[in-house]
Design goal:
- The chain has 309 residues and is mostly helical.
- The chain has a domain of 209 residues.
- Helix 1 packs parallel to helix 9, helix 2 runs antiparallel to helix 3 and helix 5 runs parallel beside helix 11.
- This is Probable membrane transporter protein.
Length: 309
């Protein structure tokens, strides 16, 4: 029972982060399952089964709050489902040891770009009127879906920064669309795992516990992303991307950094991240105070006509 309660709390926290920042549910939940000794394929399968419910609830909540661009959902979600099914089916025969640090390096670059752009310049508006093209979203969805299934998480960390960096969709709609399209990815990955594993090693009770926590957090996260200013949200997302991928690189065979080095780097990143978010908050308040107010309705100064008796 204690394990189920902890898993439910983990699911709540993971969905709160994922629903408000567009990433981290799979990474957080899979990491916890691996820590208690679940094999990678079964851990990813359990998480994706839970995500069928959490992504559905999150998608509905984001839709109700106006955070979803359905064109983006379809253009990235369908290829993502194809990639997720392929990744889940062939997980046991694939090695991601080399691909993981390479992708982490690319994502780190994107994270630094997003963090710097939103912190310094705020919400990019120069391209918000230009649609995201299918030739960009389809390959992105295919790769993100494949990595999500094989790595136990990756749909948000790959899709969110790439679309944010394009500057063609405001942050709340990026997050809402990524979270909504993840439902298709979760269904496809679950079917792939059931086809490849036959349910072996999948803990259905754990999946239900993760789902329960996620369902509670989904509407809260959708409300949060609706009301957090885009500049602050962009800085928060960028910092999360940087921290997550620096952690992956430091623990990879490429670097193999010791504990002292890791925590020194983490401390530095936390300080920079906190400073960036604080600066974004300060600049948002400043621009909000100086922004021109809408003109008041003109008042008719003519005296009212006298009524005849």
């Amino acid at each position: 029972m204690r394990t189920l309660i902890l898993l439910a709390l983990a699911g709540l926290g993971a969905q709160l982060v994922d629903g408000s920042l567009g990433m981290a549910y799979g990474v957080t939940s899979t990491t916890l399952l691996l820590a208690v000794g679940t094999n990678p394929a079964a851990a990813s399968a359990t998480v994706h089964l839970a995500e069928i419910g959490t992504t559905l609830a999150s998608g509905v909540a984001h839709w109700r709050f106006g955070n979803v661009d359905w064109r983006v959902v379809l253009k990235i979600g369908i290829p993502g489902a194809v990639g997720a099914f392929a990744g889940a089916t062939f997980l046991s025969a694939l090695s991601t040891e080399l691909a993981e640090p390479v992708m982490a390096l690319l994502l780190l670059g994107l994270g630094l770009y997003v963090l710097g752009r939103f912190t310094v310049a705020g919400l990019p508006t120069d391209k918000l009127d230009k649609p995201l093209r299918k030739r960009f979203l389809s390959p992105l969805g295919l790769v993100a879906g494949f990595l999500d299934a094989t790595g136990g998480g990756g749909w948000g960390p790959v899709g969110t920064p790439a679309i944010l960096a394009s500057g063609r969709l405001e942050p709340r709609k990026v997050i809402g669309s990524i979270d909504t399209s993840e439902f298709l990815v979760a269904v496809a990955a679950s079917l792939g795992f059931l086809f490849g594993l036959g349910g072996e090693g999948v803990n259905w009770l754990w999946a239900v516990a993760l789902l329960a926590g996620g369902l509670i957090a989904a509407p809260i996260a959708a409300w949060l992303v609706r009301h957090v200013p885009p500049r602050i949200l962009g800085s928060a997302v960028g910092g999360l991307i940087v921290l997550t991928n620096i952690r992956t690189l430091l623990r990879s065979d490429w670097l193999g950094a010791g504990d002292t080095t890791q925590w020194t780097v983490y401390g530095f990143v936390y300080v920079v991240w906190a400073a960036a978010v604080a600066y974004s908050v300060k600049e948002h308040r400043r621009t909000s105070r100086t922004a021109p107010r809408p003109a008041a309705e003109p008042v008719d100064a003519r005296p009212a006509e006298a009524t005849t008796t």
